[in-house]
Specification:
Herpes Virus-1; 3 domains; binds 2-acetamido-2-deoxy-beta-D-glucopyranose; SAM/pointed_sf; about 500 residues; repeat; single chain; 4-stranded antiparallel β-sheet; Methylamine Dehydrogenase, Chain H; WD repeat; DNA polymerase, domain 1; WD40_repeat_CS; WD repeat, SAM and U-box domain-containing protein 1; alpha+beta
Length: about 500
């Protein structure tokens, strides 16, 4: 489920871009300003709006730790803003003095790349704030740019319709000439490195969108010896008009896009399954972004508004991946003394040791907090507890206490289970919907993390048969994963 949690109406003209850091949301607009909000409660920071650009601000990008924001404008500059004070730290003048349409940081903060409407690319050394190299393509406007997770490559996209892969020497490693008919509008790498097929190959996922109304997912692999290969993996067609922006979630598993048809679509990225279509904006959706730390999406539009959405599925599995920022965001509004129910919005299998402690307290099992802490029992361990472990390992002598704890754990398992989930979609260890089912040597499928943890701590016996596992090899159960993904979509 995706719910709209707030609408920001501060810009006075088209919103062109939005981007999150761990704790902030920045939006930029044709009104020449950038606005910065705290993701705790989406209040605007005291120093916002940032004024300094002379014309339309097209794009903005946070440095990976969120200390700096780079913004670029038709005024031919990329401005570096300090995020603790809102002050301008540097103004980078684009070579050629043409409007700067896009800028992106490298994941290691060492480089910043900017692309302009005359087709020039500028690669900046961010440590010295100085121009390192210029390059680019002629007769086109650069509108899209993204650094790969390794920081050694980046991709540019232009109104000519091509996607090009560059290295830090600004040598073009690959050109995909007709990536999007009539023009590329945006591209973004997934933050993860994929496992390459050969030992020395690094492989990345790139999403791109364009005037052809398509969203595409590419695999880009790079081998120092043979160069760069780019392969189209999926074409997503959930929107009926040009797709203007796209963004991967922090775990690379979801992809959001905004379109001229005013809709926002959210896909499961590996299968390309359409999960949600959202409509709230009154005009073109020009911008979209996933938060790196919370299950939040921001979308910006030519209707001048920015919408913030919360993504959660029925079982809370998506939410479970986003603990830190999400916790901060949700607890901020809560007054002291109110019951902290932070853990209950996560899957129990994702609880930290502290979450387990607060659950014990809530259930009136305070006496167990210390022994659970001493034994490093997190959510996954909690769900795997049984009478034997309680007696022999945790030395809980009281029969009554053991019984109560076991009952509470059973209740917890029931609670976190979605009603009506087919049994085979639940992990036998955690009793929760599997995200990453793997087949163990006993032939049963388990949630990958759960069985790995089981194998590490439970003497390599099968959770189902109690017999020793012949090997610890785990093979992904793709069929099951797809079935679960389809089931989730239809619920
Ligand atoms: C990886 O690179 C090393 C050194 O460049 C080479 O000896 C080796 O054969 C390569 N392995 C593969 C799988 O390409
Ligand atoms: C994948 O999981 C399903 C459901 O548990 C099971 O029926 C199927 O046999 C598994 N696939 C393999 C290859 O074991
Ligand atoms: C672990 O398994 C081995 C053989 O599979 C057995 O000899 C040993 O006693 C087991 N240890 C525990 C703690 O169960």
């Amino acid at each position: 489920m995706v719910s709209l949690i707030c609408t920001l109406h501060d810009h006075r003209d088209d919103v062109n871009w939005c981007v999150f850091s761990a704790s902030l949301l920045a939006t930029c607009s044709a009104d020449k300003t950038i606005r910065v909000y705290s993701t705790r409660d989406f209040s605007e920071l005291p120093f916002s709006p940032l004024s300094g650009h002379g014309y339309v601000v097209h794009c903005c990008s946070f440095s990976p730790c969120g200390q700096y924001l780079a913004s670029c404008s038709t005024d031919a500059t990329t401005v570096i803003w300090l995020m603790d004070s809102g002050e301008i730290e540097a103004v980078l003048e684009h070579p050629g003095r043409s409007p700067v349409r896009v800028c992106a940081f490298s994941p290691d903060s060492v480089h910043l790349v900017s692309g302009a409407s005359d087709g020039t690319l500028a690669l900046w050394d961010f440590t010295t704030r100085s121009l390192l190299r210029t390059g680019g393509v002629t007769d086109t406007t650069l509108v899209a740019c993204s650094f790969s997770p390794c920081g050694q490559l980046f991709v540019s996209g232009s109104t000519y319709g091509d996607l090009r892969v560059w290295n830090l020497e600004l040598r073009q490693l690959h050109a995909e000439k007709n990536a999007h008919d009539l023009g590329v509008t945006c591209c973004q790498f997934a933050p993860q490195m994929q496992k390459g097929s050969g030992g020395n190959v690094t492989e990345f996922r790139l999403a791109s969108c364009g005037q052809d109304s398509l969203l595409k997912i590419w695999s880009i692999s790079h081998m120092p010896s043979t160069g760069c290969k780019m392969q189209l993996l999926r074409t997503l067609t959930g929107q009926t008009a040009p797709v203007l922006s796209c963004s991967f979630s922090a775990d690379g598993q979801m992809l959001v896009s905004g379109s001229v048809d005013k809709s926002i679509t959210v896909y499961e990225a590996s299968q390309g399954t359409l999960l949600y279509t959202l409509s709230q904006h009154e005009r073109y959706v020009t911008a979209c972004a996933f938060s790196p730390t919370a299950p939040l999406i921001a979308t910006g539009s030519m209707d001048k508004s920015v919408n913030v959405w919360r993504v959660e599925d029925g079982c809370g599995t998506l939410e479970a991946k986003f603990l830190p920022g999400e916790e901060a965001a949700s607890s901020a509004g809560r007054r002291e003394g109110e019951k902290m129910a932070g853990h209950s919005r996560l899957m129990a299998s994702d609880w930290s040791e502290d979450d387990v402690s607060s659950w014990l307290r809530e259930e009136g099992l305070d006496v167990l907090v210390d022994v659970f802490k001493a034994n490093n029992i997190d959510g996954l361990e909690l769900l795997a507890l049984n009478k034997d472990i309680l007696t022999t390992d945790l030395k809980i002598e009281s029969v009554g206490l053991r019984g109560k704890l076991i009952r509470k754990i059973e209740e917890l398992k029931m609670e976190s289970m979605c009603t009506g989930v087919p049994d085979e979609y639940l992990c036998p260890i955690t009793h929760e919907l599997m995200r990453d089912p793997v087949i163990a040597a006993d032939g049963y499928s388990y949630e990958c993390e759960a069985i790995q943890s089981w194998i590490r701590t439970k003497n390599r016996s099968s959770p189902m048969t109690n017999l020793p596992l012949q090997t610890t090899l785990l093979t992904p159960n793709h069929t099951l994963k797809m079935a679960i993904s389809r089931w989730k979509t239809s619920h």
